[in-house]
Amino acid sequence: MDWKAVIGIRPTASGAPLKTSGVRELEFTWHGRDSVRRIREIAEVSPEIASSDVVISLISQSDIAFSRSRARASAKWVAWVRGKPWPAAGEQSLLRRLPLRWLETRALRSADEVWATTPVLASEFAAARAAEIVPAGIGGVSRTSWGTEGAGPLVWAGRVDVDKRPGLFIDIVEKTRHPGRLFGEGPLTVDLQKRHADGLTWAGWADADELWNGASVFVGTSAREAFGRSAVEAAAAGLPIVIARDYGAAPLLVTSDEMRRACVVESDDPEVWANAVRRILDDQDLRRAVSDHVYANAKQLTIAASVKIAAERAMTLVDGVRSI
């Protein structure tokens, strides 16, 4: 099966341009409504789309643009929702959120098929459109933990912002009196650093292979996580996890009732979180069981597995798919 991609890249994006057969990068400087218009224009003259049997859009702006595009006539269209499809309350003003939600809802309802990376994410927009689950995937991660390390630091990794609830992680470190490492930066960094929490190390951004070394438990406090790459990578490294129920990858990583009771938290109360973390820290057999359980499930969430599922779903739309 032939895959092609057209990717818009901001001029400020880091890294070198991709040199991959079938991938075309375009510098993209437009924002807001202009970005939707420009994506539609690109789609209507794109040779990649003109020769494809199935087109997959990956962001809300592309969903909205393609739903209005003449290019739809030449191919089946899948909207693959990989992040929250519209802003949540508090993230943007009501006057901006409502039109965005209306436009994306209309776009999703007009697609030939909609995919979501997790059941949690699919439930977020279920009122707009039912979705097939096509999980995202991560690159290769070596197992470095078997749940034997109970003295190592707790680890949190992500953007330091309201929806990730980094302050809750700091509460957990304080209540458990167990060392913690917080990886990442964001709008709340300066204010939270003023707490001077005992036992907490602010580690900033770091390479993936540095995040889990010597750690005891990954703590995922996010209340709005479409997938949760950090949790999946931690699990793939064998690290025991404690994560929020609303974490996108939670039902993919934790698949038994026993494990859910141990490491999926359905509360905003820091004491409830601290108790869950303490239980895993204090029980080596439980740590090992959680480590093995989440590791086995994370091994299924690879890039190769994601591509395979996507290709299989695409082939159900068109007999004899040639190009995507």
From TrEMBL:
Alphabetically sorted, this entry's keywords are:
Glycosyltransferase, Transferase
Pfam families, alphabetized: Glyco_trans_1_4
Could you name the domain of life of the organism this protein comes from?
Bacteria
Protein's UniProt keywords contain Zinc-finger: no
Q: Name one GO molecular function term.
A: glycosyltransferase activity
UniProt entry tagged with the keyword Glycosyltransferase: yes
Q: PANTHER family attached here? A: D-INOSITOL 3-PHOSPHATE GLYCOSYLTRANSFERASE (PTHR12526:SF510), GLYCOSYLTRANSFERASE (PTHR12526)
**Protein name per the record:** Glycosyl transferases group 1
Protein's organism? Microbacterium pygmaeum
